[in-house]
């Protein structure tokens, strides 16, 4: 579409759905490649300094597909399209990512977030989970959910189950069946979760836990009983958790999620980790899960204060006079003045 716009001399804008810091990483490695032949796939250092990040990014936080040369060439081509755009609308908030937003000078960047769907409904099965939450004490439940593509093989499911049971904490766990190996099929719900869980687990934890299939994530995060969120760190999930002020424990799985986890834990310091440097196929032990969820649910006044500050910021950003509201208005005025609207 950018090429079509170029043929007709029409300016184009891009909507970038991930974090501004991720956009900065992509544009920086493309610039290094084009100007000096830098090949991030063969980078052997421990960390890489990137202008959109306050701290150097460790090698383990790079997107896992970065070693795929074909994928990397596609990423470079996309980054070049970004640079030719009249502007980029980013689903973020200036106060959340000021370092990244201020560093992106190759085109006009408009932080217009958070753009969220907070009106999701719940089916009958999900209503039962909400009713269960209604019976739990405030901020007592760990919510585990790994996104639309997040699912684990049986060996890892057993470790998560054993870790949750050993912790003694209340939990609501979204557990889905992975697609067949070797295919791109997404996860599906189990007919009966007992088939993959340890024998007797559902009965032993019936008083404190619940396992379910697909869940209305925003409704659950908004519930007063939820006190912590074990997340894959997709950017939408991250913004939703921030919006509702729910502390996160990071378990990134694919795409740019390790970058998001690094941002949350080490730059913003508003999250803990289950396994921040998780590698696909790795088994996270029951002991690591138990330790991680306990740390998530422990009171940390400094972390809670920072989380509340950012939660308030992203809500105010969309109000009249807020930073994202002003950025949207600036984008509209730019379209008008350029004849692009």
What can you see in these coordinates?
This protein has 341 residues and is an alpha/beta fold. The chain is 42% helix and 13% strand. The protein contains 13 helices and 13 strands. It has helices spanning 2-7, 20-36, 69-84, 98-103, 124-134, 154-167, 201-204, 217-221, 235-244, 257-267, 286-297, 301-316, 323-338, and strands at 13-16, 47-48, 57-58, 87-90, 108-111, 141-145, 170-174, 176-177, 188-189, 209-212, 226-231, 248-250, 271-273. It has a six-stranded parallel beta sheet, sandwiched between helices. The chain has a three-stranded parallel beta sheet with strand order 1-4-5. Helix 2 (20-36) crosses helix 3 and helix 6 packs across helix 11. It is globular, with a radius of gyration of 21 Å. The two termini are 17 Å apart. Its EC number is 2.4.1.115.
Blueprint of the fold:
Layout: H1 2-7, E1 13-16, H2 20-36, E2 47-48, E3 57-58, H3 69-84, E4 87-90, H4 98-103, E5 108-111, H5 124-134, E6 141-145, H6 154-167, E7 170-174, E8 176-177, E9 188-189, H7 201-204, E10 209-212, H8 217-221, E11 226-231, H9 235-244, E12 248-250, H10 257-267, E13 271-273, H11 286-297, H12 301-316, H13 323-338
Parallel strand pairs: 1-4, 4-5, 6-7, 6-11, 7-10, 11-12, 12-13
Antiparallel strand pairs: 2-3, 8-9
Helix pairs in contact: 2-3, 6-11
Keywords:
341 residues; six-stranded parallel beta sheet; three-stranded parallel beta sheet; 42% helix; globular; UDP-glycosyltransf_plant; anthocyanidin 3-O-glucosyltransferase activity; UDP_glycos_trans_CS; glycosyltransferase
């Amino acid at each position: 579409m950018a090429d079509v716009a170029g043929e007709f001399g029409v300016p184009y804008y891009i909507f970038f759905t991930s974090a501004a810091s991720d956009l900065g990483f992509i544009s920086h490695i493309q610039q290094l490649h084009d100007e000096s032949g830098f090949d991030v796939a063969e980078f052997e250092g421990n960390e890489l300094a990137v202008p959109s990040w306050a701290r150097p990014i460790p090698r383990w936080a790079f997107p896992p597909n970065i070693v795929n040369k074909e994928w990397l060439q596609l990423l470079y081509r996309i980054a070049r399209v970004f640079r030719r755009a009249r502007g980029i609308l980013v689903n973020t908030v200036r106060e959340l990512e000021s370092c990244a937003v201020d560093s992106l000078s190759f085109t006009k960047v408009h932080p217009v977030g958070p753009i969220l769907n907070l009106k999701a409904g719940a089916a009958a099965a999900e209503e039962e989970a909400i009713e269960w939450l209604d019976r739990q004490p405030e901020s007592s439940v760990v919510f585990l959910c790994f996104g639309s593509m997040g699912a684990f093989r049986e060996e890892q499911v057993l470790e998560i189950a054993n870790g949750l049971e050993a912790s003694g904490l209340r939990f609501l766990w979204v557990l889905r069946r992975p697609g067949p190996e070797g295919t791109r099929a997404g996860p599906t719900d189990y007919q009966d979760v007992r088939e993959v869980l340890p024998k007797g687990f559902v009965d032993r934890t019936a008083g404190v836990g619940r396992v379910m299939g697909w869940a209305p994530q925003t409704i659950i995060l908004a519930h007063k009983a939820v006190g912590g969120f074990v997340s894959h760190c997709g950017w939408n999930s991250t913004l939703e958790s921030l919006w509702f002020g729910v502390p996160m424990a990071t378990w990134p799985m694919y795409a740019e999620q390790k970058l998001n986890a690094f941002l949350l834990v080490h730059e913003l310091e508003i999250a803990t980790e289950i396994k921040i440097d998780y590698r696909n196929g790795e088994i996270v032990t029951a002991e690591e899960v138990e330790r991680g969820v306990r740390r998530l649910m422990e009171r940390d006044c400094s972390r809670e204060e920072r989380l509340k500050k950012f939660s308030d910021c992203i809500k105010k950003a969309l109000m009249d006079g807020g930073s994202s509201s002003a950025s949207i208005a600036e984008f509209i005025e730019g379209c008008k003045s350029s004849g692009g609207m």
